[in-house]
Specification:
- 2 copies of one chain form a homodimer.
- Chain A is α/β, with parallel strands linked by helices.
- The first copy, chain A, has a 6-stranded mixed beta sheet. A 5-stranded parallel beta sheet of chain A has the order 3-2-1-4-5, sandwiched between helices. In chain A, strands 10-12 form a two-stranded parallel sheet.
- In chain A, strand 7 and strand 8 form a beta hairpin.
- In chain A, helix 3 runs antiparallel to helix 4 and helix 8 packs parallel to helix 9.
- The longest helix of chain A has 19 residues.
- Chain A is globular.
- The interface between A and B is large, with 38 and 38 residues.
Chain lengths: 283, 283
């Protein structure tokens, strides 16, 4: 029997898709749901709930379950570090976590990956844990983007690359060359809701869609954690903001439930496009 | 008698302060309020209302009023260019405006400045039209920023510089090294309201303030138009977001009603700090 996949899980569709896939392929899964971010749909998988500061407990439970490969997936908000319940291992790691946390999300995540690797686990990305999650290259759904949309996608790819390089975020929206919104800690969904509230003069609408959402990983991102993720709700919110389509870095961002995303995009009249990873890196 | 100041005005406190100052200094003012953005407090000054596309009318009215110096001030949202009522001059300028508008706000504004200069006016900045509007250097109000706040101000100054270089916007919020929000088309007030809605774990609160709002001009900004502006409401919204203070580029951003801003900051426990223009340009 293969070693079950270790899954340290937050909220959302991604950890559910990974857990279901691990069961479907026969590998099996051991799910540690993080306290405060317990995804209900994961409750029936083998595993348990652990606190964010209980690093020692996480390691011993994964070892007891015989896990070798380990994946982090799902949404977890930064905790208030001073409120965390820590076990011995968590307490030993805290000073490093605190100092790296000040450098941004990515630095913080690197500390965790490194700690689990030192403990003998093989940390893999969501894309390795579940084939077919990564966006493919080229047109994925909808009509081919217009010349104007291709221009917006280029500008947005540039802005998202610069924004990622500064560890700000992984997404932005550009319409007719104008940067409508840049994602930081509020997340992509909130950013899209904000675009829908902008004056109609500077954005598109149903029937006259314009503007593009771009999602791409940070250039120096720890790709085994926190790859940018899109799903059906991303398509719906982009539609509500009047956008013409969504550009997703091919091989660099995840599409959850791709068939449903494609159906939604076709129905609402948006394109989904996997742009080449080098787009917008020319400055 | 000196030539009256020509004021092309949108909404907000800035054009009102400039108009009042021009009257107080004895220069006098001729105010052209822009249709759709008519500031009510400017209704009693000499002048009239003009449409955004009526460039010819603007020029002839300013000439008739004997204006030489011309200032643009106040908030105007991008119009839907296809809905604009254009006079001959406006129609002649439209193709250039449309092509530059796709490059961002700044490129769009440069076209307008250049057109008015070609027509013989001397376009000046709000800071030239009204001395004492620009932020001074050093501590302006409140207790000196802590080491942590100085660190946040540095990161925010870097992010705002990069964001400005891409013509995204002029402001951002950083707390404990983490970029909470970056301003684009929603404006600073909306960005601060969004910060107040973020989880308490990653931001400050009354009694335990942390995080800094930074406002600075874009590095290659047409400084005669659209200098970043702060006012009493900026201080109030920053306080509601739990921030420790506001960093304003000294000599590069405007403070409207500075005494009231300082009072508000002291009362709510925030610092106001004028940082040197070179801060954060080191990468």
């Amino acid at each position: 029997m293969p070693a079950p996949l270790g899954l340290i899980a937050g909220l959302g569709d991604l950890p559910v898709a990974i857990a279901e896939n691990a069961v479907a392929t026969g590998q099996g899964v051991h799910v540690l749901r993080l306290k405060g971010f317990e995804e209900p749909r994961l409750a029936d998988f083998p595993g348990s709930v652990v606190g964010l500061g209980e690093i020692g407990a996480v390691i011993s439970r994964l070892r007891a379950a015989g896990c070798e490969d380990l994946v982090f997936a799902g949404i977890v908000k930064r905790p208030n570090f001073s409120d965390l319940k820590l076990d011995l291992k968590g307490a030993a790691l805290l000073p490093k976590v605190l100092s790296e946390a000040r450098k941004g999300d990515d630095a913080l995540l690197r500390v965790l990956v490194s700690e689990f690797e030192k403990s003998g686990f093989n940390v893999i990305g969501s894309d390795q844990a579940h084939a077919n999650l990564l966006a493919p290259a080229g047109l994925i759904a909808g009509a081919p983007p217009s010349e104007m949309s291709l221009g917006d996608m280029l500008v947005a790819a540039r802005v998202a690359a610069a924004s990622g390089a500064l560890d700000i975020g992984q997404a932005c929206v550009v319409c007719d060359g104008l940067v409508l919104a840049v994602e930081a800690q509020e997340g992509t969904d909130e950013m899209l809701r904000r675009c829908a509230a902008l004056p109609e003069a500077i954005r598109g609408r149903e029937g006259a869609r314009r503007g593009v959402l771009v999602k791409r990983p940070k250039p120096e991102q720890e790709r085994r954690i926190d790859l940018p993720t899109t799903g059906v709700s991303t398509v719906e919110l982009a539609a509500a903001a009047g956008l013409a389509g969504i550009g997703i870095e091919a091989g660099g961002a995840l599409m959850l439930n791709r068939p449903a995303m494609m159906d939604t995009a076709e129905r609402l009249g948006l394109f989904l496009y996997g742009f080449k990873p080098e787009l917008g890196l020319d400055r």
